Structure formats: structure tokens, C-alpha cells
Amino acid sequence: MASPGPVVHRRRVAEELRRLRTEADRTLEEVADALLISTSKLSRLENAQGRPQPRDVRDLIRFYGIEGTKVAERLQQWTKAAQERGWWSDKNISTELSTHLAYEAEAAVARVYTIPMFPVLLQTPEYSRAYYREGEPSLSGKEIERYVELRKQRQKSLDKRPGQEALRLVAVVHESALYQVVGSHEVMREQFRHLIERSTAHNVELRVLPFTAPPLPTIGCTYGYFEFSEPLDHDVVDVETHAGIQHLDSADEVARYREHHDRLCEHALTTDQTRARLREVLAERYT
After folding, report:
1. Are residues 111 and 150 in the same domain?
2. 133-164, pLDDT tens digit by residue?
3. In angstroms, rounded to a whole number, what is the distance separating the alpha carbons of residues 18 and 25?
């Protein structure tokens, strides 16, 4: 089931609570015993797992002796904000996908790399539908339509978002995606036309990594690097496989993926060259 609440605020609360405990030189067990809560509950709070409860945060503020401080005020504000539910919270999706959508909804920039499919945020409904039908044969027709609608809702972030600017998308697509037929030639034809048009938006940068590019690190896996506008919020990476989504948030791992994505961009076609290549393949194979 989906895990509710804006993930950015949960992460802020978690990081601040970890910092306070470290500076107080206390173990998880010591703090949990003092507050009469389980160690596992405190661990979940410090790892942004689930919504932080105002009462628990209030008790921790008292325990660390920071009542009336700016730190306490920030913690209470973040805890309140973390109670809000994302639009996806009632969609009956996995926890991993829910967290992914939260990052996507709250990031300033999404830097993605996909192989051998086009990015979800740039897919037509027909392309998405054909992908699920052929790639996820266990899904019923009703389930497929639910996931297609979910993708359509996600794509709205490229146009507008409540209280923040539209998401900026920097997408690198392996050239194999241009030749991987999904659905039919008609589906591919409309998908190509959509990519050509959508990639002209000011906040969308679409680039093809050609077959001639060297075998760079991460060239064989699809992932999203989510960049946040506030210095307080650390960037994160989601690596996608058929088995699920792996969330990476350690500073070293995230930094490596940013370097890898930058290298992909260095070897990819420019945006104008990408549109030219799309037109060329469209004319050669799908018209």
C-alpha cells in the first residue's frame, strides 16, 4: 500500500532528529526508553518511514531540551506539513512507487536515463498501455488502465504544480528505445510525434544516447536522479528494475550517479540533434 505524506518533510524531520540524538550522545535505546516508545518506532522516525506524529515530535523536543527554539519551531512546522497526503496516496500502489512519486512531485529537477523505453513523463497513453499489456502480462485490463491514468497524472507535473514551478526534466534515452517497437507502428508513430513536440517545452530537455557512445557506467539501467531546490534537502536516486525500485540516498552514491548522468549528457546528442534523429527514424521506420 502507498505510504502517505510529503517525503521531503519526513526526511527533514528524520535528519534533524538524528542530528539531535547524535549531538546529545544518546543511543536509540536510551532515547526510546526515556520516551516509553519502542526502538523500532524511533528508528522509523529517524529514517523517514511513515508520517511523524506531532505528539512523538513534541516529546522529543522536550527530551532534547530545545523547547522555544528555532529548531523546535522548524520541527513542528515540518511535522505538520508531513501530515498532508499526496494525490497518489489512495491509489493502492506499492510503497516504493509511492516514495518515487513523492520525490517526483517535490523535486525541482528530474534527471532520468531510460533503456530501452521512453521516459514515463513523455509517454503517450497508447505507448504506456501497450507497454503494460506486453511487458506486464499478469495485469488485468482494469489494472492497466489504472496505471495508465497514474502516468497521465504524473505528467501534469511538467505543466504546473500547486505552490511550486513545473518540474524540469532532463532525460537521456538510449537509442535502442527508438527501435524497440511497443504496441505497433501506429503507436510508435504517435509517440515519436509527441516526443518531437513535447521536447520543445522550456523545461524539457530530451537527448538520445547514440549506439556510438562508449559503454558508460549506468548505461544498462533505468534511473531517476531527483534534485531539490532547498540546500537542506539532499538529492536522491531511484534505480528502476523489473523487480522494483531501489532508493539511494547516501551522499557518495548520489554524487556518483550525478557524475554518471553528466557523462551520459556529454556523449548524448544535443536537443536539436535528438529531434532531427527522431524525425529521421520516424520517416524511415514508422511512416
Report:
1. yes
2. 999 999 999 999 999 999 999 999 999 887 78
3. 11
